[in-house]
């Protein structure tokens, strides 16, 4: 496929805001793609060159892109800047300059493969003089492209390809490509859940349909999509739902999925981002585990070994950084409480019942004698009163609550189910539970806030059934002046013209600045109410859910993906519990 053809698809996708229409356009794109290129096309569609969990950096900020475009089109840097000031999008600038220049006759249209390889080459330049080299290489590529192709090729290194759909839409589209409906999605998704490489899935499916997917296996190095917990308000409800069960403390740190094959270690966040470089002590301890291949999961938490006390989340989370790692590792050492095992010595374990996975996990880690790893405490309960006592004990130890696990359940990769139930302190008074909300945009604000240029946020919850975000509150409190500035900065980096396609918002709520779905913030409210202004859980003419007295409790949860935000289903349940 020619890159110009792919760019035309991008153009169509960009101007569509119905998810169904997007699914059909993507399906059309995938049917035209060959099996050899469909993986690259999937990554490119999501604005990347590799799967989501692999990290790479172009290190080409806007400032450098001015130079790239100046060079590509023989313009003065200031002229590029001025045009950018007018258009507000460097992709648009490239498109305009390329159109001005007219058709490039000497160069034949490049294929997707060729452009992909060039972009990859640009990202890979390292060492002395690398900036100059990157600029030259990219300018050469951009100059050879037609206007629409140039527009998208520029946005990819800037990480600003704004197509507005997620990996889930890609799965729907793969089904659509074969069946003209979404019915195969539920057959394709389990393979994606155990091997979160969307390109690999698309390629296997394109090559040999569902039979092709049968060859997809769990392999160390490719993350497994994480399971999430449902919630219930008390011990009685939990025992009534799943009967005899295991309960573990809910450690308040961040989740790590750890892979080891021989001496190669990968640590993925809950978001499936590669974090190995940030946690040298976890990597070192993993290398010492006495198995040659393993994938397991746990919660990493700052721990003071002298006082034997856990550190609060605000301190633990400082370890999620890319710089100053050694220093911070000394200041806040981590302990990983391991709680699940997915794979061991080539054997897939996620389909085995929880109690068997747990048993094997204990076997391995009892022997490991590591300062870094500890086995998450676990107790079996049959009576609600005993479970309640365990919960109270954990609360008194400063923990968030407990995670209750169904004894015979497999690991539910990539989904939220009642195999795991979280019972948290706040769940007691359902009204003041915290919610993870997606920031959709912001309003400039009045009075003192007008000076900051941000006065309120519009936030949403996730409608998983439709893969869209629905507004639930407008929030103007809970943040200090510094936090408002910080959040504005984060939002501005993700600013887009017009409402992103997956946002459902009442027209009277339009924020002044729209933000791409990326930032998750922790919100507390007094009550869930109904309001005709919000779209959360809204069906037909009925009112949606809204939050009464919402306030921001914790600025941003970078470890959560937009799709990890509290779901409409959870809101409906919480509303019922009130
Ligand atoms: P959620 O992700 O909102 O479904 O809530 C469950 C979260 O609790 C997981 O993502 C883990 O990060 C965290 N957690 C803490 N302790 C445990 C545990 N013992 N078992 C499972 N998850 C735990």
UniProtKB/TrEMBL annotation:
GO terms for biological process: cell division; DNA biosynthetic process; DNA recombination; DNA repair; lagging strand elongation. The keyword Nucleotidyltransferase does not apply. GO terms for molecular function: ATP binding; DNA binding; DNA ligase (ATP) activity; metal ion binding. It catalyses: ATP + (deoxyribonucleotide)n-3'-hydroxyl + 5'-phospho-(deoxyribonucleotide)m = (deoxyribonucleotide)n+m + AMP + diphosphate. Its EC number is 6.5.1.1. Residues 327-451 form the ATP-dependent DNA ligase family profile domain. Pfam families: DNA_ligase_A_C, DNA_ligase_A_M, DNA_ligase_A_N. Its cofactor is Mg(2+). Belongs to the ATP-dependent DNA ligase family. This is Probable DNA ligase. The lineage of its organism: Bacteria, Katanobacteria. The gene is lig.
């Amino acid at each position: 496929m020619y890159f110009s053809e792919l760019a035309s698809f991008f153009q169509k996708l960009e101007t569509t805001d119905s998810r169904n229409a997007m699914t059909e356009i993507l399906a059309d794109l995938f049917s035209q793609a060959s099996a050899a290129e469909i993986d690259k096309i999937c990554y490119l569609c999501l604005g990347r060159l590799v799967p989501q969990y692999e990290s790479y950096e172009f290190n080409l900020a806007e400032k450098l892109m001015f130079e790239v475009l100046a060079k590509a089109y023989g313009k003065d840097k200031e002229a590029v800047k001025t045009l950018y000031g007018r258009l507000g999008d460097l992709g648009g600038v490239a498109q305009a300059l390329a159109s001005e220049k007219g058709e490039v006759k000497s160069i034949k249209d490049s294929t997707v493969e060729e452009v992909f390889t060039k972009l990859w080459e640009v990202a890979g330049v390292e060492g002395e003089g690398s900036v100059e080299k990157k600029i030259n290489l990219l300018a050469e590529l951009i100059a050879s492209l037609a206007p629409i192709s140039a527009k998208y090729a520029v946005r990819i290194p800037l990480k600003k390809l704004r197509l507005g759909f997620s990996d889930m839409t890609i799965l729907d589209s793969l089904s659509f490509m074969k069946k003209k409906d979404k019915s195969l999605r539920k057959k394709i998704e389990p393979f994606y859940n155990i091997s979160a490489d969307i390109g690999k899935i698309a390629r296997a499916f394109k090559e040999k349909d569902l039979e092709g997917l049968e060859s997809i296996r769990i392999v160390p190095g490719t993350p497994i999509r994480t399971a999430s917990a449902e919630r219930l308000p008390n011990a009685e409800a939990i025992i009534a739902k799943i009967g005899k069960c295991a309960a573990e403390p809910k450690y308040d740190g961040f989740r790590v999925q750890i892979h080891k094959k021989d001496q190669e270690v990968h640590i993925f966040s809950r978001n499936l981002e590669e974090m190995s470089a940030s946690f040298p002590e976890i990597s070192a301890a993993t290398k010492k585990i006495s198995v040659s291949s393993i994938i397991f999961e746990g919660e990493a938490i700052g721990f003071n070994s002298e006082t034997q006390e856990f550190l609060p989340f605000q301190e633990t989370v400082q370890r999620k950084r890319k710089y100053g790692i050694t220093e911070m590792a000394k200041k806040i050492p981590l302990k990983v409480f391991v709680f699940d095992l997915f794979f061991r010595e080539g054997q897939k374990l996620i389909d085995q019942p929880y109690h068997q996975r747990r048993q094997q996990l204990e076997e391995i880690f009892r022997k490991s004698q590591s300062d870094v790893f500890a086995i998450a405490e676990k107790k079996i309960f049959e009576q609600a009163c005993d479970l309640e006592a365990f919960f109270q004990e954990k609360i008194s130890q400063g923990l968030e609550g407990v995670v209750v696990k169904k004894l015979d359940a497999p690991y539910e990769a990539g989904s939220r189910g009642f195999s795991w139930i979280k019972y948290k302190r706040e769940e007691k008074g359902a009204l003041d539970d915290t919610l993870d909300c997606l920031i959709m945009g912001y309003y400039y604000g009045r009075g003192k806030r007008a000076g900051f240029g941000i006065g309120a946020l519009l936030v949403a919850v996730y409608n998983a059934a439709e893969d869209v975000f629905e507004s639930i509150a407008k929030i103007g409190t809970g943040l200090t002046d510094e936090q408002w500035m910080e959040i504005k900065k984060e939002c501005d980096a993700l600013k887009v013209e017009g409402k992103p396609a997956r946002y459902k918002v009442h027209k009277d709520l339009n924020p002044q600045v729209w933000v791409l779905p990326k930032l998750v913030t922790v919100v507390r409210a007094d009550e869930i109410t109904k309001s005709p202004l919000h779209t959360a859980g809204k069906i037909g003419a009925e009112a949606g859910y809204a939050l009464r007295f919402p306030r921001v409790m914790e600025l941003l949860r970078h470890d959560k993906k937009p799709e990890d935000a509290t779901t409409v289903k959870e809101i409906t349940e919480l509303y019922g519990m009130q």
